[in-house]
Design goal:
Blueprint (H helix, E strand, L loop, with lengths): L1 E2 L4 E7 L4 H13 L1 E7 L5 H12 L3 E5 L2 E7 L11 E2 L4 H11 L5 E5 L10 H9 L3 E5 L2 E7 L4 E2 L2 E3 L5 H11 L2 E9 L7 H8 L4 E5 L5 E7 L8 E2 L4 H13 L4 E8 L6 H8 L3 E10 L2 E9 L27 E2 L11 H8 L6 E3 L12 H11 L4 E4 L2 E4 L9 E3 L4 H12 L5 E4 L11 H8 E2 L1
Helix pairs in contact: 1-2, 1-3, 1-6, 2-3, 3-5, 4-5, 7-11, 9-11
The protein binds shikimate-3-phosphate.
The site of shikimate-3-phosphate (S3P) has 10 residues, from α5.
């Protein structure tokens, strides 16, 4: 994909349905009894992988664009699959479905593409085996052959990594277990869509915060629940790319409507504001247990100094803004998918930006630290690489360059925005991978960009 520099972004946009919420809506509707109608379902190929696997497990799903009709089979109504379940590029599909399959009285095999086959799965194998399932893997990586057990044993499990996918996997197994399953988060709060979606379907989920600020999320199994309609808001992680472009290009005016504003997903907006960029939430209401609203962005204001609000977890009193261009600690899980983009934003900010405590980025669809560092260096930016992050010099002028997506959708989109800010055209190899989360990305951007 050849990308020319942009002058500004102008207009109003709707973003397709949230990918994280869409996976959960489809899986939880399949586990429910009765017919659920889902609107705003993600157009991503990752979510199509989830639907493919559910259908192979005997769930009837009718799809009309972004509307789905899911005939829930209940927790015990899945059919042993005839084929291996192909999760494509989607870690969410594999990890969340593994939680469902662990409680079935049949065996199944989850497979994925080259990227997914290199991703760590011990993080779900350990808790699911503690619950009684038996899982074979290739040295902790896919394919996973899951021999389910019914009923599963309830466990109390402290997450060894701050991962919403692992938390969700254990909770989905927990609804099939005998007794109370607890997932304990000590390394930062991860997105809580599974808890909210289960509650929306009438499943009681308890969240207890302890004195040391860790949280225990508890669920009593086995539990059956009924179908329910779900309306999915726009994906804030997809919107983030447009927001960054509009915030950085002087003269831009962008309004995004109907986007999910769950507080475990909006840290990128807070960070942009702390860096002095003009990003406002103009309206907020609740839909299906999730906050939804509009975002307005005006481009090109860069007031000093650059400040990142580290929030209460950092040890500073709540609401105190720490003067620093550093993002780390408990904040990281809340902007995990936006970190490559934040590094691009950092190139435009005086003092640049430092991202630490983010070693998890090395285990995403590609090693996102290495990919970001390589591409930024190709554009002539000074970058320091750490095992757990990177530091970007800023403000820096970006040169148009030959870039690589490394087959990773978020790298392709982050560097499309970098290419907008560059002197001269850039080319991104393998940019078609944006379809993994946001197939409309290039077309929508083209309709908003002025050159
Ligand atoms: C997701 C959780 C995150 C995120 C991924 C989606 C989810 O992954 O990076 O894009 O929907 O739960 P981890 O759980 O591996 O951090």
């Amino acid at each position: 994909m050849k990308i020319r520099p942009a002058r500004r972004i102008k207009g109003r946009a709707y973003i397709p349905g949230d990918k994280s919420l869409s996976h959960r809506a489809a899986i939880i509707a399949a586990l429910a009894r009765g017919t659920s109608h889902i609107s705003g379902f993600s157009t991503s190929s990752d979510c199509a992988s989830t639907l493919l696997c559910l259908r192979e497990l005997g769930v009837s799903i009718e799809q009309n664009g972004s509307s789905l009709r899911v005939e829930g089979v209940g927790k015990t109504g899945f059919r042993p699959p005839n084929e291996r379940l192909d999760c494509g590029n989607s870690g969410s599909t594999m990890r969340m479905l593994a939680g469902v399959l662990a409680g079935q009285n049949f065996s199944s095999t989850l497979i994925g593409d080259g990227s997914l086959r290199s991703r760590p799965m011990e993080r779900i194998i350990e808790p699911l085996e503690m619950m009684g399932a038996h899982i074979e893997s290739q040295d902790g990586k896919p394919p996973l052959r899951i021999e389910g057990t019914r009923p599963l044993k309830a466990i109390s499990y402290e997450l060894p990594v701050a991962s919403a996918q692992v938390k969700s996997c254990v909770l989905l197994a927990g609804i099939q277990a005998d007794g109370r399953t607890d997932v304990i988060e000590t390394l930062g709060t991860t997105r809580d869509h599974t808890e909210r979606m289960l509650a929306w379907f009438g499943v009681p989920v308890e969240r207890v915060v302890t004195a040391d600020a860790s949280a225990a999320i508890g669920i009593h199994g086995p539990i059956s629940f009924a179908a329910r309609g779900v309306n999915i808001p726009g994906d804030i992680s997809s919107a983030a790319f447009l927001i960054a472009a509009a915030a950085l290009l002087p003269g831009s005016e962008l309004e995004i409507e109907g986007v999910g504003l769950n507080p475990t997903r909006t840290q990128f907006l807070s960070t942009l504001r702390s860096l002095g960029l003009d990003v406002r939430i103009t309206e907020i209401h609740e839909k299906c247990n999730e906050p939804v609203g509009n975002i307005r962005v005006s481009g090109g204001s860069f007031p000093e100094p650059q400040r990142v609000d580290r929030g209460p977890q950092s040890g500073s009193p709540a609401g105190v803004v720490v003067e620093s261009n550093s993002v780390r600690g408990g904040l990281i899980p809340q902007l995990i998918d936006e970190l490559p983009l934040l590094a691009v934003v950092g190139t435009q900010i005086s003092g640049g930006i430092e991202i630490r405590d983010a070693a998890e980025l090395r285990f995403k669809e590609t090693d996102r630290i290495a990919a970001t560092v390589k591409n930024l260096r190709m554009m002539g930016v000074g970058v320091e690489e750490f095992e757990d992050g990177l530091a970007v010099a800023g403000p820096a002028s970006l040169s148009g360059a030959e870039l690589d997506s490394f087959g990773d959708h978020r790298i392709a989109m982050a560097f499309t925005i970098a290419a907008f800010l560059a002197d001269g055209a850039s080319e991104i190899a393998g940019a078609e991978c944006v379809e993994i989360s946001f197939p409309e990305f290039f077309e929508l951007l083209e309709s908003l960009v002025q050159r």
